[in-house]
Amino acid sequence: MDMDLECSVPYPIASAGASPYQAFQQALRNVDRELSTMADDLAVVERAMRRDAQAVEGTAEAIARAGLDDRFVRMTQEVAILLGGTARGLGLFQQAAQEAADDTAATARLHTSLYGRLDEIRSGRKEKTPKPGFFTD
């Protein structure tokens, strides 16, 4: 199956005076921040969904005590089960978002350790430096 996947996030564009290194670091910080926010938001929704599942289960018990038709009790219990399953799925999604944020932060640290000093040297020079690949055959 051939899928044409397109990234909706534009590549970072270096602003005036910013090096490609700095632009990439900024992009990593932006991604990390967005993923962390998403993870936090998903955790809030997960907790609310779990509370709703418990409340619906209590409603099913109340319907059963009131002597309503078993069909309504079963339907309400099914809703509680589905809400609980959705909450578990949200929890997994939240964990994945947090792991992605952690990996993004680790990538930024690795990028800094590999290229940070080079950027400092290149940014501090008044003279232009060769483009990458200049010295290769």
From TrEMBL:
Domain of life, source organism: Bacteria
Keywords, ordered alphabetically: Plasmid
Protein name: Putative plasmid transfer protein TraB
Protein's organism: Streptomyces clavuligerus
Lineage: Bacteria, Bacillati, Actinomycetota, Actinomycetes, Kitasatosporales
Name of the gene encoding the protein in the UniProt record: traB
